[in-house]
Design brief:
Length: 471
Amino acid sequence: MTLVAGVDSSTQSCKVVIRDADTGAVVRTGRATHPTGTEVPPDAWWAALLAAVSDAGGLDDVAALSIGGQQHGMVVLDAGGRVIRDALLWNDTRSGPAAAQLITEFGAAELAARTGLVPVASFTITKLRWLRDAEPENAARVAAVALPHDWLTWRLRGYGPAGESALGPVLDDLTTDRSDASGTGYWSPASGEYDRELLVAGLGHEAVLPRVLDAHDSPGVSVAHSGIPAGLVLGAGAGDNAAAGLGLDARSGDVVVSIGTSGTVFAVTDAPTVDPSGSVAGFADAGGAFLPLVATLNAARILDAVARLLAVDHDELGRLALAAEPGADGLVLQPYFEGERTPNLPGATATLFGLTLASTTREGLARAAIEGMLCALADGLDAIERLGVTASRVLIIGGAAQNPAVAAIAAQVFPVPVEVPEPGEYVALGAAAQAAWALTGVRPSWPVAVTSSPARDARPVIRAQYAAHAL
């Protein structure tokens, strides 16, 4: 049996999944936590990777490994390969004014045409502009800019500061992949090239950027580290959403709705997309195609908040919701509990509409919470379809997807068939698929089990009510 490993180096933790390269079956797993906060020393990711590998039983019997990682994080290195400051993560919003400056300087339509993106505080280019203005001494030291999975792959290959690595600080050997490069704001999915003018507009000067690999390429092999054997074939790596798409074996026509702390809606398309409004980010995927994506700040935590208010667990919240009629007797939750990214309303708060003596019930509030969460995500699908994308099915993943009420109400909200795959660490599963691809030269097509396929049950009242209260 040939084994391959996939890593999900996410915001909260590092997960390792080891799979049979022939069947895709999961053989064993491991996990370690990451520090909290929106800026983190990259060494913490390295320590967590080693701990998660150990928790998974090691890699001595594994042939290949690839890393899926949180997108957009800013890792800045000096000429000696040392990390200059803690990495700013995707969810660090201090660069919001920098995003506005870049849009003023270049124009939203021009930026979208050049990179597929209109800058928001998540993207790497805005963090570099913040660094340029807020920490000019640190900015002046930057010799190379990497993303989280780039840096981890570089370290696995034996590179890093002198005295801390086998091969030293060879910055020109940094590598990345199309999916993660497409989230920087200075790389074009359409041309496959870096936009150096935009890099300089962000950082203030030129710097080394990772070489962009195709999905099936390998940057090389691992060097022996504590718990890491030498000679592992390494995959190109991927951004987290793109890796999840690969783990689901998503193809053209598939739309993935991920319900985590935040929410994402993304499609796999054969051609790049451009949205000058900025609602849809035109990313690349991890399979050689493209990945138009909408992100929301509020998703599963909407259900967390309402479950706390009702003093119930998520199972009971679902039972209450299904006891109410579709539309919750006119009760509508606009779920912007901590602002929103799509639509771009950072200062918004949640609002409950339609309170009457009849609608103010525990069942109605539970139903309004699930309907509000799903309507916000369905608005994301609408935004993607307005760009000419055709959806044939929606795959719903994330912990909340396993709630029967979420699946049933999704079949009432989304305009195409809904499927709920079995629970899984899809980012790490996709990274393992990429490792197998790098090892064998053939993209695997491993089966993905589906736990629920609710019948279409269109209830237009749900979205009509929600739309009536749109900001």
